[in-house]
Amino acid sequence: VSRRRASEKRSTEMGNKRAEKKHDKHHKTTRKEGEKDRKRPRRRNADEEEAEEESSKEKKNIKNERTKTVKLEDEKEKDVKKKRKNSESESHSESNSDAESKDNQAVGVLGSLTPEELEQLKEAVDERKKLITTLKGKPWPMKKKLVILRESQEFVEKYEGALGKGKGRKLYAYKVLMMKKWMKFQRDLENFKTACIPWEMKIKEIESHFGSSVASYFIFLRWMYGINMILFGLTFGLVMVPEALMGKPYGSMPRKTVPRVEEASAMNFAVLWDFGGYAKYSVLFYGYYNNQRAIGWLKFRMPLSYFLVGVGTVAYSYMVVIRTMARNANEEGGGDDTSFNFSWKTFTSWDYLIGNPETADNKFASITTSFKEAIVEEQESRKDDNIHLTRFLRVLANFLVLCCLAGSGYLIYFVVRRSQKFALEGLENYGWWERNEVNMVMSLLGMFCPMLFDVISTLENYHPRIALQWQLGRIFALFLGNLYTFIIALMDAIQLKRAEEEIVKKNMTIWQANLYNGTVPDNSTALPITVHPADVPRGPCWETMVGQEFVRLIISDTMTTYITLLIGDFLRAVLVRFLNNCWCWDLEYGFPSYSEFDVSGNVLGLIFNQGMIWMGAFYAPCLPALNLLRLHVSMYLQCWAVMCCNVPQERVFKASGSSNFYMAMLLVILFLSTLPAIYTIVSIPPSFDCGPFSGKNRMFDVIQETLETDFPAWFSKVFSYASNPGLVLSFLLLLVLAIYYLQSTSKTYKRVNMELKKKLQTQNEENKRKNKLAALKAANELEQAKKAGEQCSNSASDLGESTQNVSQLP
């Protein structure tokens, strides 16, 4: 018994000695670190002293937390020893995972702590969390930051889930775990959304090398692609597919059959390239659709669907354009804050989370481009030129531009008159150029006139952003004049087709009378005569003719754009690249050099191409599909051409406000392109033997027919009252007044916002001035204190010398 008691005493004494040794070692290390910190020389700068104070505070917190963890570990060892003594025969099951074992250990440790210690541990966890969030801004070396971050994360993960109140610890740990998983899910979801944005990385790469002005074009192209996807879905799903699946098949009626005269050449490539032959008599164009009120077993209302889809696409386009303009205005309403611009760009531009070399190269190019943009903005804000010479050159440039516009308008008018003469004489007697002369001349003018405008704009010496807007306005005027000249020519062609249609009506009555009178005797009971649909005479169908013209114009414009891209950019870049070493002068910096990306010409090409889609989609439902294919190919082809064949502009500028300027021009062209379509729908009667509205006086009569047959009488009366011109005009007047009121209030809010911003800037400058004065005053007081201290020390030394001298006297 005595031996056992002695051995137990020895074991307890040995345990106590070990714990005391651990505590002594820990205190020695902390004392050594403190002595080292004391021996370090003090820094002179106030910022560095503050940084040392913060680091010392953090070290103290870390020391306190380490002491707490040591206590917790000691108590844990004591508990383990007690458990081993009490239950040596019990078996312990292995833990399922490392995370659960850590939580169980933390919970076991926390179970032996007092409430005061738990509160201290919670405060320590909160401090570690704050340290993790603010660690990036600490003035410490990166190695120290990484060590402290790792230790803090381990400490938080170990004790955060176990901290709770009584029995709710497991629930609290579960909540913390689910919160972390939810945050990770949200972060992954945002990354997935970013990855799902089409062509996002391509546009970011282009923006990093060429600036935001070139990237704004590709963002605008992507936006147009989304709009055309909606238009294609409406026309394809509600017009083309129902007619192809539920309508009468090809060859069942004259409007769906190629005439006998055209059957021999209906499959020729030249005919199909001009969208004639079998392409003309298909669901691609207006004339193929039947005027039957309900088709198929679903009783699908084809004429009503055709009319509502045509109106709905235009209404949707208006809504989306105006909504996008409003959103851009809200985003750009605050303006650009240019205070300390270069300092912010120098110290905060780099992203330290980048781990991919290619991404790092793009970020480096992006920072360089942003510095170029900022330098151009600063130079333009400080530029001071001769105002009289500048005004003279700008007036001269505008005069030259007006001459170019007048010449292009006259050329288009001359070509249209020639095409009308060719149409009267018969296009079969002329070649390919005479048949497509109008389209080719318009495409060539749209290709070369912007280059001429770009040369003329060098005389004006505008800011690059303002120069781009002037260039866009001039090209807009050019394209608009060309487009409306083309529309006037189409109106003349429509009148000719209608006159021809009247002649065909008379000939059809004569043909029918001769057919029945010459072949069927009177009082005969024979079956009626059946004529093949290909042999039945038919009208010219001016709606299909209009749709064909717009499709040809789109195709010719697309081919001209791609050929210009390949010849003007790719072959030029190849010649400059491979002939530069064996040429008489430097081809890269002289003539011809690498080409720059023409933002204005490409943007206006997109806008007017979309205007033609809106104008012609009612007569050719295939136009949204063709435009969707064109935009898809253009995105890849132009991205490749920009990165491989073009060079950045000499004066890179920031494209602030350009997106809204693009939208404003798109809204104008949308309004101008819907006017001819509305005029033809309202005023011109449809063809008598083709299209879903054949046999009606006007195309919109399908609405009145639907109200009379498919709705009760009271609903048609309400609709007629609501469509009263007096009520409509009063509603429009109220709408205009509301728009004016909202615009005026938005202007006042914007002005107040700018004034408030100026006040804040002046207040900030005043605070800086006060702080500077306070710092100077403190520095002066410090110098005075130093001088006073030196004087006191000198007087003390003098007093000491005098006392020594007095003591040496006999």
Automatic annotation (TrEMBL):
GO terms for molecular function: mechanosensitive monoatomic ion channel activity. The keyword Transmembrane applies. GO terms for cellular component: plasma membrane. Residues 541-656 form the TMC domain. It comes from the Eukaryota. One of its GO terms (biological process) is detection of mechanical stimulus involved in sensory perception of sound. The chain crosses the membrane at residues 225-246, 300-321, 395-416, 437-456, 476-496, 661-682, 721-742. It is a multi-pass membrane protein. Pfam families: TMC. It is found in: Membrane. InterPro entries: TMC, TMC_dom. The keyword Translocase does not apply. Residues 746-773 form a coiled coil. Residues 791-810 have a biased composition (Polar residues). Keywords: Coiled coil, Membrane, Transmembrane, Transmembrane helix. Residues 8-22, 54-103 have a biased composition (Basic and acidic residues). Residues 1-105, 787-810 are annotated as: Disordered. Belongs to the TMC family. This is Transmembrane channel-like protein. It comes from Cyprinus carpio (Common carp).
